[in-house]
Batch of 3 targets.
Target 1
Amino acid sequence: MDRSEDNEFYFNENEISRYARHLSLPEVGIAGQRKLKKSSVFCVGIGGLGSPLLIYLAASGVGKIGIIDFDFVEESNLQRQIIHCSNSIGRPKTLSAKNRILEINPFCQVEVFNSSLNSRNALDILNEYDIICDCTDNFPSRYLINDACVILGKPNIYGSIQGFQGQATVFNLKPDSPNFRDLVPEPPPRNLLPTCSEGGVLGILPGIIGLIQATETIKIITNIGKSLDGRLLVFDALLMKFKELSLRHNQSSDKILTLIDYETFCADKKSIKHTKEDESINSISVGNLRDLVNNKSPDLILIDVREEEEFVISSIHKALSFPLSEIQRGDAIPKLQKLAKDKKVYLYCKTGKRSLSALKILNNYGIQGVNLDGGIDAWRRNL
């Protein structure tokens, strides 16, 4: 047994056997493995990126792993979110991931937050961890994680994917390191950025990017090699090519001192180019809709235009299911026309894009409605 340092961090015979290939590496050895056991890493998002990252951080011997996600496992996740399995469908992603982590390595301590990370809780939650891994898929969360890491002085291991391309880098490693706002100073228009469910993603791609994030995390903990600090690694799976871009911190940028309302920040209508048809459709923020729901507005009706299996797993309280496919076929039009006579209709989907498409169709039938900006994802992030 190894008892050469604090008793809390000695290795028993099972651990020495488990980590033997690490211990054989001169760059890691017993000292590096002890650093891993002493470390704590927090992963925001347990999807395509978070799945491989968590699997390998657990296998590598990270002592404490924190995970946060408000979503449930869906069948469409399993093509890329490999920490989950068929038996996990319908379960919270946090519980599915925790069980898998402990199956891989029972020596890991796992802390679970089955909720959203938001401006109210981010600083308290993230402050307890050494390194933060951004495995999210939306800009409000990316800006929130970035700003919290800057305020707390935490390294932010970043990854993103879309289609056949992915990116990875390390933000905020040192005081003069670049952060996410140096890469994306202003949030891009939401209607120009399809999600994985809308634009698709090669299932293997998040595995590649997630493992790069895991590699950077382990290197930083053990203080070996050269990190991606100041370098953005871009991967194209179709061409099987990597390219590297330099990234520097803008010293003249405003200092980040407090957290803000990131849904509003990323939904800035001044930055969005609408078509004339889009401009005729009203939208509502999560906060304003929640006020109407909490006040039990009598003329309000919520319509969920996602597919039935999505609705069954999770929906906004008292919402009715009218999938976009039924609206497109015309099957749902008579019922919606009847409902719209007496109620104010509010539509939502996952991110706001399918509901916008549905409202365009409904307008042709004289049905006026309001679109929830950011969809149910934004609703959950602000619970």
Target 2
Amino acid sequence: APIEALASGYTWSEGPVWDRTRNCLYFTDVPGNIAWKWSEAEGATEFLNPSGVARGDAAGFREPGANGLAIARDGSLLICNHGRRAIEKMDFETGQRESLAAIYNGKAFNSPNDIVEAPDGSLFFTDPPYGLEGLNDSPLKEQDANGVYRRSPDGMITRLVDTMTFPNGVALSPDNETLYVSQSDPANPVILRMSPEGTSQAVLFDAKPFMSDSAPGLPDGMAVARSGYIFATGPGGVFLLSPEGLPLARINTGKATANCCFGDADGQTLYMTAHDTLMRIRTKSTGLAWS
């Protein structure tokens, strides 16, 4: 299957999610502070501008825009908003945004990055410092860790993990018994698997042996197939991992690839945000949402 380039010219494309109701894809340019909409008929058009915080309020942020996106079970859009340092929910009809999580232990989050929703309505999200100028050295940084969090349906925020250096992508297994979290750290580029409570952590996949000058990129976003196999970004493109973490293949995008998601009516097209370009490739796998 050929890799198709659909749109390009972005600073750092991220957060793709397929909207099955409207038959289109949303993705973000995080430093550019714009969220984009792509459809077969219209190509890429602006969807949210700004996607994060207003440009006049972006002092202290290296990436003020929205990052990870997800379609919630109630049909709204979940937004990891760097500039607002919050998880938001947006109503598609009105465009109104509601903040779901902005504070833990009385302190602002760093810059929420990626999110996944469980069947019970729990939200799992990561909070690295990528949105802040200076990252961990930013004077705006209030949290004492770059954490992995759960927001329960009643709004309670729990920090599940405080030991990861740069937690990034997050996904759930088909049975919702395993949480996958990637770590975008060149010194320890791994994907962890753990229980939804954050216990029983283990390395699922270590990308370090695959790193080279000709294979840019680190573990970042993930898309889980109905079969339980994982499409995970990493050095050189997107890796196909077995549920046990065995690397079986790599889709060679040739660029540092931030994230991916399944889309189209049958859920068998993998859309990939690869640095400055939105790409896609047909697969024999079907996305988990099409189960």
Target 3
Amino acid sequence: DGHGTRVVIELEGKYLKGRASVDEYLELTSIANPHARIVFIAPPQAGDPGPVHTERPRSVDELPAETREIQPHPHGIELGILIQMLERTESTQLGAFLQSDFCRVGPGTAKSICSAAGLTSNTWVKKVGHAEAEKLYKAIQDAKLMAPPTDCLSPIGARVLLKGLESGLKPDFIAVSSRPPAVYRGRPFLIEAGVAFGGDLPGDETARVHRFANRVPLQYQQSACACFKAVVETDWKRYTLSQPRGSLPVGPLVVMIHMASVWVPFTSESKEAIADYDEIRKEMRLALQDCGRKLGVYLNRRERMRRQGERRHIFERYIGEIAKACESITGEPAEPLYEALLRTAQKKTAEADAMLDEEGRFIGKKDRLENDDTVFMRERPAGEDDDEPAPAKAQTPEKPTKKRGRKQDDTLFDDAQD
């Protein structure tokens, strides 16, 4: 119909909602693929007049960059695979075979590999037996080769990942990190991570971990996945979050990890969990730490603004009482003292107004988070409820009146003491 590839599958099963369901799978798919428009027609449930249509519109218009096919890297093969390649190659000479059937192997490298194996570049491939193949395999593993190219990978990208998390979760804060490509057993891979905090996410539950392999959600066997282990190993307390020992952090937090690779090492044929290898888990942990540092800056800023707001509120609450008490002791009018104390209170809290606005962002100087294109902070509409009181600018407290009755005075002092 002119709209690309269409896949039609007929399945018979029981339709359920909630965690690890079709609905969650499509929700996660839209986060990792924000360029896709997903329309889901759910089976009618009890009380529904008919099928329920759910649409997830695309949040970005550009398509992912097209990947390029590469040949295997010599350091990523095993002896049996090398023997099969020698049997199936169209090259007649060993040097040509190494250059055409592998990547990152030039004429000089091919010549040195053949020499280390006791062969030459002109050796006929058909004459390479099992013993010669073993020597060739050892020479390949000992050779110093460039890392494989990474244009075969299809990462989501920091900007696109921000859009996907923003439209899918609608949190207050998002930080993402995209690691440089790395190599595992000769195969290139790339790790991307993101953390979403606040908004409508539940604050009294453990963080949710969303795992992806080549943009495909992984919903089962979470505890056996390297992604889950990397999240647990990360010290989230360093970023002002609560974390029980050996468990996930607690709070309104969602952690996302995506692995893009030409060969994702799964734990089983079901492809539900990424195998736990040191190289892969290290990259995941580094990406999470990068996101955690940005989240820590944001949370520390909110806490600092909350303390400044409470300090200002205390100042303004007692200024009128102090001025009135001094008037009753000294007989001097309360108005000048009140104005002087008010100016002092504004001066003591002026630093917060000069440096940060009500959203906790810097004014008049470079902002680490504001100018970071891997961070998103939601603008809260004026008057929106928040768990923390926003430190507003200095309000004008109620000025002391000159005529007050004893009963009113006692009530005011009692409130101040409380």
